[in-house]
């Protein structure tokens, strides 16, 4: 406790004279379990109870527990700080005591209980009095002591003080990309015994049910994605379509509609509905819930679906962390269910998403990121809690802002700024605690609108609320200090009613006893009255006192902010994200929350973890870009000089439609050229598109075609091109084609001769048929005798006269044709009539052809 006291602006209430525990978790020498009542009047009986432990390592005798106090109250809050250290003056008045005779062995314990009527203490007026509870042995050596406070109201009129509570539900960023949690800390925090679970229940001031029950919370909370009817004009996931079909599926009218913005769904919140009544709880102390939208978004993601959790720390960048799959967390679902119910009864205000370092962002000309943090903040609160954060309130991280941050908030409609006293210090001439309200200079175009003002939290109360409260006795002492601080503020001389804002640190982790105790004390302490923060107005100018200095952003705060070097590295990631976003259809920006999480104030003193988280985001962006890809195919063979190949493009993204530009070029355009094809097209999530590309080869051989996907500006979205090997074999085909053409020419030249020969044969057949018909018409005995005689004479080789030869020749011609029809070989009657088939000729060739010389062996038939 002494170590903790040295680190806190307001020390813990353990005297340096007390013996410290030897080991962590061991008992303190003297513990104060209860002080009742927490404030006394003249009719009260003061009771103090606790335990003494012998931590000296030796046996002690005759232990006495006693109370010392002073009859003079503190005159300032600073005196409380000095007294709590145990190094300032010591009270001398003796109060009740309790003696224990005999020995107390090492590590032995004694329970004590002190009581006295308040009237016996001799306290005279309203105020806070010093009190020490101590244990001594028989020799007077102090075994342990606790320095605490005794508020006394007396019989005078008790002053009044309004106290407004700001109750935080915040945590540091828990994710790298949307699906990867850095550890499982948040999973435990939302449970009944976790930090956020306890803060939710203590702030609600009613018991909450952290049991999931039998109901389907995923469906009850609306965490399931809506299943839409499949559109017949759109491909389903995994379906392959051509680029032309993909382009035809998007109509110009739909594109124009999307550009102009669709109408809000009927169940969307009505931003203009100003007639709604402000939230109002029906029991307990009103609190204003201060939420970090990034934390709510983390819890919503944890509750919605499966996700990954890193199993090892990221402090060592050289070591790849292990991962495990985690199903949707039932504890997160229950927390969301209870939060939606509880927070709806009070005012909700929101910090920027993930408590982004707005001052550093604006200082480094990253206005777009600062704007995004506010926009994402409002969207995340509405999505997680199904209610709107009050955008009249601005919650700058750390309660600090400069003029540029004020201008940014003002542009988003804020007029009330929750600040710390470091950002708006009390004026040097003010000796008492000023009220929370303080006017701010109007900024920009809002000079004529509502006057902006700050609501400044009391730094002393913030420090008191940060006191240790988990070990035995710590909660009782912290509650007593809270009562003393508020009693001192109420008792200070000040004009008019004052409102003080109690705002714990964002990572506040009180014990349930202390958290519920300070809220109960707000109602029980006679000088305190609870007030709603949204009802705290700025007094009229005529009633104001100048109690605070001008708005200030301390120099050391500038030095503690995110450095330009770090934010430059974040901008490098942002460029990769911009390249990914450039192919998405619409205004989708899925990595914007991850970028804003990298810009959180929580990374200021965690450089190693911030760098490792940034690396995870970079890998995730690259992986998502690679999900839009060209699927490599087999090598292409051109059987001729031209051909067509199909390029298959896949969109493996599950939620995003992409619009990509396809680029192909040949490594050797003299050998292989690429024709016209569909250059750009849309692909639905999980779908594929085939683009048909014409190719033309001039020379045989193998050529690589480079294929890449680009955005509209020609920037490649993949680090490497896909290669298509094209093998051209068209030359052999050309040789076959030439041979085929020659054959066709030869056939064309021989065709007329063949036709003439066929015609002569047909004529001969017709003549033979006529001769046969004429023979049938002669008288019996003539035709057959002549035919028979002619035939017999021919066969016998008998000489014939001229008339008989002519008759016989005519008949022989017909007989010759008949012999051919019978299959006998008959010599040609004339070479002129039957020229050789191998020599082309036509009907008029005899007129131009020189006469043939007589062949000595020729029988004269040629003549």
Q: What's the gyration radius in Å?
A: 52 Å
The helix fraction, in percent, is: 25-40%
**Roughly what is the average pLDDT, rounded to an integer?**
81
Low-confidence stretches: 1-25, 226-234, 249-275, 778-863
Note the main attributes of this structure.
863 residues; alpha/beta; five-stranded parallel sheet; five-stranded mixed sheet; 33% helix
Task: Describe what this molecule looks like in 3D.
The protein has 863 residues and is α/β, with parallel strands linked by helices. 33% of the residues lie in helices and 21% in strands. The chain has 23 helices and 29 strands. The strands form 7 sheets. Strands 8, 11, 14, 19 and 20 form a 5-stranded parallel beta sheet that branches.
């Amino acid at each position: 406790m002494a170590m903790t006291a040295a680190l806190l602006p307001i020390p813990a209430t353990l005297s340096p004279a007390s013996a410290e525990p030897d080991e962590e978790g061991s008992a303190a020498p003297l513990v104060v379990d209860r002080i009742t009542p927490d404030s006394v009047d003249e009719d009260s009986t003061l009771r103090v109870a606790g335990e003494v432990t012998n931590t000296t390592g030796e046996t002690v005798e005759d232990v006495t527990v006693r109370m010392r106090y002073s009859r003079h109250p503190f005159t300032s809050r600073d005196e409380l700080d000095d007294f709590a250290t145990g190094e300032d003056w010591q009270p001398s008045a003796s109060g009740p005591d309790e003696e224990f005779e005999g020995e107390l062995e090492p590590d032995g314990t004694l329970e004590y209980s002190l009581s006295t009527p308040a009237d016996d203490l001799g306290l005279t007026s309203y105020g806070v009095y010093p009190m020490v509870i101590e244990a001594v042995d028989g020799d007077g050596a102090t075994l342990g002591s606790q320095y605490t406070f005794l508020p006394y109201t007396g019989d005078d009129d008790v002053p009044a003080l309004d106290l407004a509570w700001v109750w935080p539900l915040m945590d540091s960023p828990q994710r790298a990309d949307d699906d990867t949690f850095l550890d499982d800390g948040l999973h435990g925090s939302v449970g009944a015994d976790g930090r956020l679970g306890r803060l939710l229940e203590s702030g609600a001031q009613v018991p909450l049910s952290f049991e999931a029950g039998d109901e389907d919370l995923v469906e009850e909370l609306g965490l399931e994605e809506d299943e839409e009817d499949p559109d017949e004009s759109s491909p389903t996931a995994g379906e392959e379509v051509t680029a032309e079909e993909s382009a035809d599926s998007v109509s110009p009218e739909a594109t124009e509609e999307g550009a102009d913005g669709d109408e809000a769904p009927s169940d969307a919140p009505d931003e203009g509905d100003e007639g709604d009544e402000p939230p109002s709880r029906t029991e307990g102390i009103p609190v204003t819930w201060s939420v970090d939208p990034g934390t709510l978004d983390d819890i919503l993601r944890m509750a919605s679906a499966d996700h990954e959790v890193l199993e090892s720390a990221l402090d060592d960048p050289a070591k790849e962390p292990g991962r495990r799959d985690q199903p949707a967390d039932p504890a997160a679902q229950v927390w969301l269910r209870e939060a939606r119910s509880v927070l709806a009864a009070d005012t909700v205000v929101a910090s920027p998403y993930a408590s982004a370092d707005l001052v550093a962002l604006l200082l480094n000309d990253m206005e777009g990121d600062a704007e995004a943090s506010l926009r994402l903040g409002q969207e995340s609160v509405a999505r997680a809690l199904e209610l709107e954060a009050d955008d009249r309130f601005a919650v700058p991280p750390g309660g600090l802002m400069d003029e540029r941050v004020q201008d940014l908030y003002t542009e988003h409609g804020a007029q009330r700024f929750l600040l710390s006293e470091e950002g708006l210090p009390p004026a040097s001439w003010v000796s008492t605690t000023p009220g929370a309200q303080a006017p701010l200079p109007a900024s920009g175009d809002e000079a004529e609108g509502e006057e902006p003002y700050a609501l400044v939290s009391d730094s002393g109360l913030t420090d008191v609320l940060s006191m240790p409260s988990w070990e035995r006795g710590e909660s009782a002492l912290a509650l007593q200090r809270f009562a003393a601080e508020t009693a001192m503020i109420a008792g200070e001389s000040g004009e008019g009613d004052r409102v003080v804002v109690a705002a714990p640190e964002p990572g506040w982790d009180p014990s349930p006893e202390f958290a519920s105790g300070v809220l109960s004390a707000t109602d029980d302490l006679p000088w305190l009255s609870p007030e709603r923060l949204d009802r705290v107005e700025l007094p009229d100018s005529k009633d104001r006192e100048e109690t605070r200095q001008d708005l200030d952003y301390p120099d050391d705060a500038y030095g503690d902010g995110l450095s330009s070097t770090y934010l430059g590295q974040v901008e490098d990631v942002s460029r990769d994200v911009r390249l990914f976003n450039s192919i998405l259809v619409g205004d989708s920006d899925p990595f914007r929350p991850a970028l804003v999480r990298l810009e959180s104030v929580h990374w200021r003193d965690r450089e190693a973890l911030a760098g490792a988280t940034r690396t995870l985001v970079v890998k995730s962006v690259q992986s998502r870009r690679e999900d839009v890809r060209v699927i490599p195919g087999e090598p292409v063979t051109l059987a001729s000089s031209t051909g067509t190949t199909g390029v298959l493009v896949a969109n493996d993204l599950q939620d995003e439609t992409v619009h990509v530009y396809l680029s192909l070029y040949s490594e050797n355009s003299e050998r292989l050229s690429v024709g016209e094809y569909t250059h750009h097209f849309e692909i639905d999530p999980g779908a594929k598109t085939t683009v048909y590309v014409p190719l033309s080869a001039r020379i045989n051989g193998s050529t690589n075609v480079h294929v890449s996907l680009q955005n509209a500006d020609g920037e490649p979205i993949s680090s490497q091109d896909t290669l298509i090997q094209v093998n051209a074999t068209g030359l052999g085909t050309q040789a076959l084609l030439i041979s085929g053409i020659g054959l066709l020419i030869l056939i064309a030249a021989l065709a007329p001769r063949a036709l003439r020969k066929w015609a002569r044969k047909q004529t001969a057949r017709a003549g033979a048929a006529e001769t046969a018909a004429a023979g049938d018409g002669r008288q019996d005995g003539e035709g057959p005798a002549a035919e028979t005689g002619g035939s017999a004479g021919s066969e016998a080789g008998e000489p014939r006269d001229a008339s008989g030869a002519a008759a016989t020749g005519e008949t022989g011609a017909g007989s010759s044709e008949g012999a051919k029809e019978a299959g006998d070989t008959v010599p040609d009657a004339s070479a002129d009539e039957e020229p050789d088939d191998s020599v082309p000729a036509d009907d008029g060739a005899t007129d131009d052809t020189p006469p043939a010389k007589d062949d000595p062996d020729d029988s004269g038939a040629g003549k």
